[in-house]
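Chapter summary example: a protein plus zinc ion.
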Amino acid sequence: MSDLLITGARLADGTTGDLGVREGVFVDPADLGGDAERLDAEGLLALPGLVDLHTHLREPGREDAETVATGTRAAARGGYTAVFAMANTDPVTDTAESAAYVAHLGRRDGDCEVVPVGAVSRGLAGEELAELGLMAEHAGVTVFSDDGRCVHDPLLMRRALTYLKPYDAVLAQHAQDPRLAGPGACCHESQIQGVLGLPGWPSVAESAIIARDVMLAEYCGARYHACHVSTAESVDVLRWAKKRGVQVTAEVTPHHLLLQTEEVAGYDTTYKVNPPLRTREHVDAVREALADGTIDAVATDHAPHAQQDKDHPFDVALPGMIGLEQSLAVVMEVMVNSGRMDWPTLVKRMSATPAEIGRLRHQGRPIAVGEPANLVLVDPDARAVVDAAASASKARNNPYGGRELPDPVVATVWAGRRTYQR
Ligand code: DOR
Ligand code: ZN
Ligand code: ZN
């Protein structure tokens, strides 16, 4: 790997200068050899590489929808240098061997770091604990989740939290009480949902689970993370729990920051997602919570699906939308360009804090001499209409297709290697 000289970049704190990269580490540009490759970053912002706590890569098992190679290529295009790969693959990542296999696929095929998430319950069945200790000890797993399913049984949740505490691992919950929705629930319970005739998920199905879980996390003294928070009541619960000193963190997705229930009015299954898109008041609440830190991080919940799994009636189609490539664009549009958030805070929410939650010590670090060379070069002014067909992902369930958004990512460098350049 040759040396790299990045010239004229501005950092999130406003300082400008040249950056040297040698053997995966930022070095003083004066220490580079004369034959260093050059990357002109005049007018661009250099941010630490983004970290995604919540990605579905679908490998092993559904390589027709996504692979580690295509998913991480989408991640690199989106400015990410690390992604946590959710456990709802086939087979499920519920043993040390299967977690080690996902990490191996990442090292072999990845355009960013791939960190396996371990399942909480065997086969995601919600009945007995998976090999939590073996996954933590032998595969370095730090995040455990049954995502796609809610850990519903309170006793299983209690045992999982108790078990994970000594490992300093975090339990990431897909908070959605299945007992509070009817069969085929696929849309936010609301006035529009009634008009459309689709079965609904009430917002309390989320907040009631988070309320229970933060009490259990406090009781067990363990770390708990709420995935894809989407309701105003959930935000209230999180605010209360944090004030109480519970070890709780939370994430919000780009789609819950930008899109509302109305999107489903055309029965376009691209917009079917769990938790569902919500109404204005909820969207406003999660934006405010991300700005003030009640919600700690942005996570994509990139959920690629094969077209045949989306080409069904709305209540039958699989839920999920992709998001790695447009995540930064959406956060810029909703949070930075609107004046809700500054660049240093964006860096916390999309890089430093997710790395800290997942205990990734070499990601989410500042851009400084001696630190790992993970960065994304951002053009803060470029805009473009999103072309869903141009995605590096195998999937086309992109909710941003046809929308005009910022087009920020110019180049991504992971461990000193250029993984994307426009
Ligand atoms: O919409 C979703 N899709 N929500 C989830 O929790 C799982 C995900 C998937 O795996 O497709
Ligand atoms: Zn989920
Ligand atoms: Zn998910």
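Key point: The domain at 49-368+394-404 is CATH 3.20.20.140 (TIM Barrel).
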